[in-house]
TrEMBL record:
Residues 19-270 form the Xylose isomerase-like TIM barrel domain. It is an enzyme of class 4 (lyase). InterPro entries: IolE/XylAMocC-like, Xyl_isomerase-like_sf, Xyl_isomerase-like_TIM-brl. Keywords: Lyase. GO terms for molecular function: myo-inosose-2 dehydratase activity. Its EC number is 4.2.1.44. Signal peptide: none annotated. It comes from Thalassoglobus neptunius. This is Inosose dehydratase. Pfam families: AP_endonuc_2.
């Protein structure tokens, strides 16, 4: 398994802070967010890549990452609901950027429908996304988000309907607790294990709609030692990407405080048997 860090974990300081500081925490891989041009980021950072970035800008970004001594484990190309035509088109552009960056995995939404009649359009879009990914040797990993990937039951239905080898699952334990009122984390993980190609490491307090995503080990809802053991037993070998999104209502963190949560998370993983590479 590869330990990585999602650039969103650096909040308003964005990818440049991640590029500068991750190595000091012992992390050599990064999950890069490719944002939507003209859409303010939830975290308030300035994006380093969007769906409208030029090829030259993507090449320059790749060089910046290499100069920082980092490798890309994946790109996060979340654009919204891929059912929508504009989101579908933005996702295709981001897939092309990810291909230029040389990644084999991307993370994004699996979509949502309001009624059964929308399944056909969503499945069509996801299959076309899968085809575009396959052309570049990329797997599209559907994020654990509301809608078709809110829990294992819905994920399995999506996988069955789309039926595409380049469309798989990103497993996020913190999001399972956040988006479901009652959940058995390990039962959920076991059900979708054959489809997991990417993992987010996110802690929480195990409460529904509770935006409490601190340094790993501080939420106490996710047993990261057990998670590591389960993934090893399932022969999972992909990225495990830190995602530390902060705590609702807390004062804005300094860069030092933000980075310290990454350092603390790495230390917690070491204490629970993870190998940091």
């Amino acid at each position: 398994m590869i330990l990585s860090c999602f650039t969103n974990s650096y909040g308003r300081f964005g990818p440049p802070a991640a590029f500068e500081l991750l190595a000091s925490a012992g992390i050599t891989h990064v999950e890069l967010a490719i944002k939507n041009a003209g859409v303010p980021s939830f975290f308030g950072e300035q994006p380093v890549a969007t769906d409208q970035s030029t090829e030259a800008e993507i090449v320059a970004l790749s060089e910046t990452i290499q100069q920082a001594g980092l490798k890309l484990s994946s790109c996060n190309v979340t654009s919204g609901n891929p059912l929508l035509p504009e989101v579908f088109q933005a996702t295709l552009k981001k897939i092309d950027h990810a291909a230029r960056l040389g990644v084999s995995l991307i993370v994004a939404g699996g979509g949502a429908i309001e009624d059964e009649s929308e399944w056909e359009a969503l499945v069509s879009h996801l299959r076309q996304i899968g085809d575009r990914c396959a052309d570049s040797g990329i797997i599209y990993c559907c994020e654990t988000h509301p809608g078709t990937c809110q829990n294992a039951e819905r994920m399995l239905e999506l996988m069955e309907r789309v039926d595409h080898n380049s469309v798989r699952i990103n497993f996020d334990p913190g999001n399972l607790f956040y988006y479901n009122e009652t959940i058995d984390l390990w039962a959920e993980q076991k059900k979708v294990a054959p489809f997991i190609r990417h993992v987010h490491l996110k802690d929480c307090r195990g409460k529904f709609e509770d935006w409490y995503f601190p340094a790993l080990g501080e939420g106490e809802a996710v047993d990261f030692e057990k998670l590591r053991t389960v993934l090893v037993e399932q022969n999972y070998s992909g990225p495990c990407s830190l995602e530390v999104e902060g705590i609702q209502g807390e004062p804005p963190l300094t860069l030092e405080q933000t980075h310290e949560r990454i350092v603390q998370s790495v230390e917690h993983l070491k204490q629970t048997g993870w190998t940091i590479n």
